[in-house]
Write a structure and sequence with these properties.
Helix content is about 40%, strand content about 15%. It is an alpha/beta fold.
């Protein structure tokens, strides 16, 4: 075998090895050096510490073991609060075929006015007093998505500006549709 043939054989061998090894090395570097963004598809924030309705002191059976969109009302339900109630209510309506599986829940600390109660259709909302320990576990003006087993999965912080309400409602809707579509429960 001539030197030229040996050189071509080595070059071909190195080329074949490079074709198989180079993608693995690049993939490893991409993962370790964070070259790629991780695909997050949820709009809300995932609740990392296990939190259930039972932890809040709420019985899930009185809520018919349904999917819940739970809104922890602030102490003073002002115009922003009323807009959030409207956004949550519109989200339930926009769920379409999934609507019978979902219930809106409002947790209140102080008695609501008749005007505020007018935003809460009693066929679609459960209005319950806020448990004493609720402020330790969840922030007020937060919308929580709860599965039929009572596990709190995602949270959405209510926006402070009216202009952000549309995107806020769309975020809750997208998360609820995704949860309902892929869920094996409820």
């Amino acid at each position: 075998m001539s030197d030229i043939q040996k050189h071509k054989s080595r070059r071909n061998l190195l080329l074949v090895i490079a074709v198989f090894v180079l993608p693995i090395v690049l993939a490893k570097l991409a993962l370790t050096q964070n070259w790629l963004e991780y695909g997050v598809t949820n709009k809300g924030t995932l609740v990392e510490n296990q939190l259930t309705l039972q932890d809040l002191g709420i019985s899930n059976t009185e809520l018919d073991n349904m999917w819940l969109i739970l809104y922890a009302l602030p102490n003073d339900c002002n115009k922003h609060c009323e807009q959030t109630l409207l956004s949550v209510n519109n989200t339930l309506i926009a769920l379409g075929k999934y609507k019978p599986k979902v219930r809106n829940v409002a947790l209140y600390k102080h008695t609501l006015s008749n005007d505020q109660l007018s935003h809460l259709d009693h066929d679609e909302w459960s209005v319950i007093p806020s448990p004493n320990n609720q402020h330790l576990l969840i922030q007020e003006s937060t919308v929580l998505l709860v599965d039929p087993l009572g596990n709190i999965i995602l949270e959405h912080k209510a926006p402070m500006h009216v202009e952000e309400q549309a995107m806020f409602g769309k975020g809750i809707l997208a998360d609820m549709k995704k949860l309902l579509k892929y869920s094996k429960i409820g």
